[in-house]
Each structure stands twice: as C-alpha cells, then as structure tokens.
Amino acid sequence: MGCSIHWCYSEFCWIWSCLAYCSSQIACFASLGGALVSCVQNFPKSRGPVVGILKGFAGLSGAILTQVYAMFNFPDQASLVFVVAVGPSIVITSVMFLVRPVGGHKQVRPSDHSSFLFTYSICVILAAYLLAVLLLQDLSSLNENVIIILTIVLVILVVLPVIIPIFLVFFSGPRPVLEESLLPEAEKQESSRMGSFILSEVEDEKTPEVDTLPPSERQKRIMHLQAKLFQAAAEGAVRVKRRKGPRRGEDFTLPQALVKADFWLIFISLVLASGSGLTVIDNLGQMSQSLGYANTHIFVSMISIWNFLGRVAGGYFSENIVKYFAYPRPVAMAAVQVVMAFALFFYAMGWPGSIYVVSVVIGLCYGAHWAIVPAAVSELFGLKSFGALYNFLTLASPAGSLIFSGVIASGIYDYQAKQQHEQRVQGSGLGLGVPLVKDDYLTCYGSICYSLTMGIMSGLCIIAFILSLIVVHRTKRVYAQIYGMPQA
User: Model pTM?
Assistant: First the structure.
C-alpha cells in the first residue's frame, strides 16, 4: 500500500505509456488517437519523444502483426485479413479504460531523459532487426522453426520498454508527492485569469527593443513592467483588457483554433508536404515497376522502415530544438519539407538511383511530419482539446493524397501509358522492347511516368516550406515564453 503512494504519478505515466505504445502497435491508427492524447498529457515536457515513439510504432504495427501471425499460422496466411480486422477492436476494448492521463504533469523525474533514450535505442534496434528479417524472408526460404525464433526475438524487443516502469517502481527511491495549492478553486481560477490578463498586457506594452537585450536584463525589464501593471490594476488606475478567446500557448477548442491563421498555415503546409509523401508511398510499387524492378515490395518495406525512423527522429530532434534553443518546433517541419522537395526533384530529373533516394528520404520526411506537427499544435493550442485538434489535422494527409495521387499522379501516368501504347501500335516504339499484350496501355515504363508528378510535388513542398517559415516567424515569441531562454 505504501508503495502505491510513491509510484502513483511518474511510474503510472510510464506504465500507461508502455501499455499504450504496445497496444498502438497492434491496433495501429484506431487506438493511436487515445494513446497519443493521454501520453502527451502525461508528459507535457517531452511531447516530441512521446509523439515520435507512438507514431513510429504505429507505422511498424503492420509488419509486427504480420510477423507474429506468421509464427502461429505458418505457412497459411489466408486469414490474416480477418485477424487484422478483429484484432485491433479487441485490443482497443481491453485497454480503453486503462490508457488515460494519470497526473504526470504534476512532476517531472530526472530519469525521464534516460528513459526516453532507452526507448529510442529499442526503436532503432527494432527497426534494424525488422528490416533484416524482411530482407531475409525475401531473399531466402525460411522454415517454420526459424520464423518462430525470429518472431520470439521480435516480441521480446517489442515488450522490452516495460523495463522502465518496473525499474521506477521497485528500484528507484520514493518520490514525495507534490502538494497542491491551498487556494480555493474560485481564487485559483481568478488568480489564473488575472495573471493571464496581466501577461497579455505585458506583451502589448513591451517595446520591440526589449527582445534584443541580454537575457538577464530582458527578464528584469519584463518583471518590472509586470509589477507596475499589477499595482496599477489593483489601484484601479489601469483597466485590464478582458480578452476574447485564448492566445497562443493557451488552451483552444477546435472552433477557436479554426479561426486562427497559425492553425491553417500548419494545416495547409501539412496538406502539401504530407500529401506529397503519402502519394509517393501509395504509388511506390508502381514507380519501381515502371523503372524495371521486379521485387517492388522491397521498396515498400524499405519506405515503411524509414517512415518509422523518421517519426522517432523527428520527435527527438524537434524536442532538442525547442529545449536547448527555445526555437519554434515548426522550424524542424520546414527543414524536412525542403529536404523532401530535393528528393522529389532528384527523381523528377531521372538521375541514377532515384528510387532509392525517394524511398529513404521520403520515408524519413513523411514520418517526421507526424512527430513534429502534433507536438507543435499541442504547444501552440494547448492540451485541453488536443484530441479534436489532432484528429482534424489527420485529414490533411488523405486530403493531399486524394488530389495528388487520385488526380495528378494517376492522370499523368495514364496519359504517358496511353502515349506509349499508341507509339507501340504505330510501330515507332520507344526502344523499350516491351511486347504488346491485352490492356498493356494501362502500363507505363520509364522515369517519365512519374517525373512530372514529382516535379509538381517538389514545388508544392517548397510552398509548404515557406508556409512553415511563416509559422516559425509568427510563433518565436510564444516558444521563448514557453521554454525560456536557450539552455547552455
């Protein structure tokens, strides 16, 4: 009983996070929303790592589930679709009352940093191991015993992060429970409102040159101005303006966020860049086929692994940007978008090895978006309605793919395939040596099939990059307030 008192906060956060992370691998996107919202609320000071790890494992969930299924049903995999349809619902139902916020925001353990590093290490090892297993299964024929051994090792790697809450419970010293404020609830709310009004007034009254002062002098000026405003407001000499709606960094509802320019800049940027990335993922098999590669599924598996690593790395590096430099997290989003634009341009030019460059870079960059954007939105628009905000943002990727893949990519591909078909029928040929068969006009060969599409999406990623830089410029002051001055 005494033990439960000491580990009811941070240890619970890690237990439920590990539980959520394990469940998200099986239930994938269906359960990810609830797990993500709960874990971000439990670890508000480590939003990047939390989002990156959870989103990363959601990307690997399909490969993990398939491998586990193969161990029990080798070599018959005909019922895999049934397992995928039923399995997530069972897992979601079993953990829906367990994965929840448990008050992790009340304290931050010094061991959290090393715990996340341990989880990151497991992520990298798991990704490398899964890639090796996929290549091994593709290049050679494995018997049932070998598959069982490989799957057992995989399951061990999956559950290995459970070591963290076990260690915190049984091997770490007792942690004192932080006391709540003794103010009555009404007074706390009034004090909070007054404080936010005063801080808003400080922002309005602060002169631009204050931001250019050294950190110590800047802090002194702001505190002096804040003290004056408090005194003037108490004496009635100054009427504190009552704001309509929250400011950046405070809690927004979805309707309140939808009228803010920052939210739509992020959303449109995500439509352009993430939609382009999803278009490449959706068409990667056909792209590799058009270039003459027989084993197209190798590139699909490759981009899935790099997608996972991109989500993990995006959360890690964006967290370092905001913690050590107090710079807006969307700057990381702008960086991956310009890299994505270069990779798409590389393919559009038809340079050698372009399919490998696209598989690696687009996988990394697309994955990084879904670690950076949810964390950034939670910082700018608060955690109170984070679930609604996050679910709205998830519409960006399919919306972009619907236009880029369903209209642009497919339209250009069909046009090029039709042109090649007509040239073969006329006897002119393209030097490809491809015999004419029934419905062959639906198949396109060569880099020309997707070069124009890649060029268009490269330009769209540049536009997304510009929009992200606008968000960076607009939110500099907010991140400086949230994370303070850069750490040494």
Answer: 0.73
